[in-house]
Amino acid sequence: MTVEPIRSKGKITKMYNYLKAKDDKYALLFKFGLNTGLRISDILPLKTSNLVFQNGNYREYLIVKEKKTSKEKKIKINDALKKELSEYMRIHNLKSDDYLFPSKKGGHIGRVQSYRFLKEAADLMGIENFGTHSLRKTWGYWTYKLSKYNIGLIMDTFNHSNQQITLRYIGINQDQKDGLYTLVQF
Length: 186
What we know:
This protein is mainly alpha-helical. Helix content is 53%, strand content 5%. It has a two-stranded antiparallel ribbon. Helix 2 (24-36) packs antiparallel against helix 4 (79-91) and helix 2 (24-36) packs across helix 6. The longest helix has 14 residues, at 9-22. It is globular.
């Protein structure tokens, strides 16, 4: 199975609302992935201090050393994510050294646990071909569309070597193929 982006804003909203009602930690994880395009392995170990100074003010950028590539990535924290984080950190009374996504066993939740929780929600919402990479792909897919098809910038953000890789990764090639099947109908 190829993991796909979520192409429906309605399904994104429904899944977020479901997660928010069930466990706000996973709602934040969902929103974090959709707003940053980071891999789940780079999101899960984040601490409050990665995003907020000791005085409570937000850092302008989240700086992450990617686990897969060992490259440093600098991400502007947008207002939608700040709003979600503020509410979450206040409700859970998080301190600067606390994990954003803590495990009941200590440390942070793992990839498998996050996958199970998110996959269950995706299945209930009728989202097919979902995996934790769907969050990253969804960011790429919607950024591509809303940036008026600026594939070069998205390609650079994902550290891909060519545009075809990025287009395939965010599901645009599949969209184009699907469109072919609506052109010819007997």
